[in-house]
Design brief:
The complex is a heterodimer of chains A (210) and B (244). Chain A is α+β, with helices and mostly antiparallel strands and 210 residues long. Chain A is built from six helices and eight strands, in the order βαββαβαβαβββαα. Chain B has 244 residues and is α+β, with helices and mostly antiparallel strands. In chain B, β4 and β5 form a beta hairpin. The chains are: A alpha+beta (210), B alpha+beta (244).
Chain lengths: 210, 244
């Protein structure tokens, strides 16, 4: 299940957030070799991990197996502060646009070759379910262009914000990806499960908000 | 320069979103890349070694490829010695065929495939590896006898080729969905009249049916399309190309 953690409930998730920062370090530093992010305590955190960040954790039996972070575009985020060169036109900003970063799944749970694993699917479904309930319909993504095709296949409407640029060994392109109920239906069809991926408390809270 | 590349890509995206068939997608892509000399397109997932000609051909998703070379390539199992295919399955970065020379060295079959491709005016090419949702590796090549591709254009082409393949795969999905919906000819005709703004009474007059019968058909159409209103039914029918 996906748990959504923000400034309001982060104290109740202290242990899980510790696991999340360690998972980020394992995946992005140890595995993908983003050496700039290396931390002596093996917890990967940055200036955006503050009150406005929304953390989405895939938790199974108390263990964090997947993670992603959403940042509001109405405040400083990676595209505005760290990689502005990736956006060559007008930068998309607004309450309906959030930036998707630090998406990762624990190594042992990325099964079936390179196909979308159930946890990866749940994380994406989490964004779409949360977005549809909160008035968010577009995410900004900085990614290797090789993954673009998958987003299109999942009924995200993808629009490039600039051309790919080389960072170290790989290429990175910034795009917006808009989604709707069709995207959710497609993700659910792929998962073979029509139920919400959000933990029950989240669903209740989201319903109350909407 | 880059902003121009982005603008061209956005213009291409608008064109390819209008494409209704794989051939439309190929046409839009070739128009967009002809300035660099490209004349041919081949895109598909990579078949497992030992597949026969028919199995290999079934992996092709988009093509505008010289037929003579197609036959020779798939009949002779060239795919399994083609250095471009080998590179696609081992490295995710896009490449020019001229960069494959190291893979051809000491490999006479690989050199032969590249050399014979030249006889079919496919001397130069640009290939982009992609990853499908199902986890398959796809290769997408543009080729011609002569090309001129400035380094800054590679990223732009990578995006356009990806968007082209994405559009094609979505068109295939829509088609499967349309088949699953399974509207009868009569239901489709009624939906078509609705799209043209005819009321159920008017449709009944045109088709020589009672208003009640048209209403019943329309209900079946809404149920099959899983929508609740006429407007939604028309929108879904247009999207799935059941009507025009």
């Amino acid at each position: 299940m996906i748990h959504i953690i923000d400034a309001g409930n982060i104290l109740q998730y202290r242990e899980e957030m510790e696991q999340a920062y360690r998972l980020r370090h394992q995946v992005f530093v140890d595995e993908m070799k983003w050496e700039d992010l290396r931390k002596p305590d093996s917890r990967e955190t940055d200036q955006f991990d503050d009150g406005r960040a929304l953390h989405m954790l895939y938790i199974q039996d108390g263990t964090v197996l997947g993670y992603q972070r959403m940042l509001p575009t109405t405040q400083p985020h990676l595209l505005s502060e760290v990689m502005p060169e990736l956006c060559e036109g007008e930068r998309p900003v607004g309450p309906h646009v959030w930036e998707w970063t630090r998406y990762c799944v624990a190594r042992a749970h990325r099964e079936r070759g390179r196909a979308l694993s159930p946890i990866a699917n749940a994380l994406l479904s989490g964004i779409v379910e949360w977005g549809l309930a909160s008035g968010v319909n577009t995410i900004i993504i900085e990614m290797d262009p090789i993954w673009l095709l998958r987003l299109v296949q999942l009924y995200f409407r993808v629009i490039p914000l600039g051309l790919p640029r080389r960072y170290g060994q790989g290429d990175v392109v910034a795009v917006t990806a808009a989604f709707d109920s069709r995207t959710l239906a497609r993700l659910r069809e792929m998962r073979g499960d029509n139920r919400s991926v959000l933990a029950p408390s989240e669903q209740a809270a989201r319903r109350a908000l909407s | 320069m880059s902003r121009k590349g982005l603008d061209q890509t956005l213009e291409f995206l608008a064109n390819v979103e209008r494409a209704q068939t794989a051939a439309d997608v190929c046409g839009a892509l070739l128009r967009s890349v002809k300035a660099y000399g490209f004349k041919h397109v081949l895109a598909g997932t990579i078949p497992i070694p030992g597949s026969n000609k028919r199995q290999q051909e079934s992996h092709v998703i988009l093509h505008e490829w010289p037929i003579g070379w197609w036959d020779r390539y798939f009949s002779n199992g060239y795919l399994f010695v083609d250095p471009a295919i080998r590179r696609v399955t081992t490295d995710i970065t896009p490449f020019l065929w001229s960069e494959l020379d190291p893979l051809c060295r000491d490999n006479p079959m690989a050199s032969r495939v590249m050399h014979e491709a030249g006889d079919f005016r496919l001397k130069h090419g640009f290939t982009v590896p992609m990853m499908t949702l199902e986890g398959d590796v796809a290769g997408f090549s543009l080729a011609a006898d002569r090309i001129e591709l400035p380094p800054y254009a590679r990223g732009m082409l990578t995006l356009q080729m990806t968007l082209a393949l994405g559009r094609t795969l979505r068109l295939e999905l829509n088609q499967h969905e349309a088949e699953r919906v399974g509207l009868t000819d009569r239901e489709r005709e009624i939906l078509q009249w609705a799209a043209l703004g005819k009321s159920e009474w008017e449709t009944g007059e045109i088709m020589r049916l009672s208003e009640h019968t048209v209403d019943k058909y329309m209900r079946d159409v809404r149920r099959k399309l899983r929508v609740t209103s006429r407007t939604q039914a028309v929108a879904e029918g247009l999207r799935l190309q059941l009507i025009s």
